[in-house]
Amino acid sequence: MKLRGVLYGCGMISEFHLRGWLRIPEVEIVALGNRTLSRAIERRDAFVPGARVYSGLAEMLDAEQPDFVDILTAPALHLEHCRLARERGIHIICQKPLADTLEGARAIAGMMEGYGKVFAIHENHRYRPWFARWVRQAREGAFGKIRFAKFEHLNGSGPPPGFKTESEAGVLLEYGSHLVDMMRALLGEPRRVYARFARVHPGVAGESLAHLVYEYPEASAVVSAAWKDSGITQGEVSVHGERREAVYQGTLTRGEEGRARVSEGGRVSEDEARSPYEDYVESFYLLEREVTNAMLGQGQVTQTAAEHLRTVIATFAAYESARRGEPVEVGA
Asked: Which of 115, 128, 129, 148 is deepest in the core (most CB within 10 A)?
């Protein structure tokens, strides 16, 4: 028996969700939904020709009675869409961020507390294969004490017009929270954050450049994210420990070239070319594979509501710091 899944929200990112689901033999995507039906039809024709299409989520859930739903709508809609799915008692995967406000994220996490089915957040940056390897090595002690880490992605262009360009919260919530989640996967929970914002893209209503410094008891981490208007994209993740240093250079989204290097004992011990596009695609699959295993009763999901909420809390602490112009504590 296959898990019967439906996907609601057929924007750009849905292509990569579908590519991941189609690699999992225990899953069958039986229906796609989108408020603008033509987008669902386009995705169906390109990826799942046998699927049915719907314009409404409730209509799709009632007609299909699936085992799970993958929700890919705008963050402001997640509370209502998660509620509809919860009422039907099915497994739920919700696209990050959980909500467009901290209060909204807390409300969804509270609503889903004690839910008897899988409720997972699709936050996949920490599943980049090279980074997941570094996190495992760090937990095994290979880096020694980590003193500094950097997470940077400065996109040379902005997002397409829509909620990302119109929302009060800009690049930090919509993209930079990916980097905050990577930081937490590596270092755990920060104590304080100092943030500065700027507008460097005329088409983005919220902040289009965010520079954050997070403090840890024995380390610090820099997170920088931008939607620029320059045509030059910059990306880097670096981890500096007492025993080992690791540096990735290249886009963290769908670029052409990347490079991951590791230095230990005064020499470069690893030096590999990476395909940012392939790593991007693979991270969708790896998260969805983990979620599928959990739906089949064969493990737990990493990106639970509680886990993701801590990323949201650390992200909104940076908004508060930028508003006040001073460092703030990162609360629970």
From this structure: 128
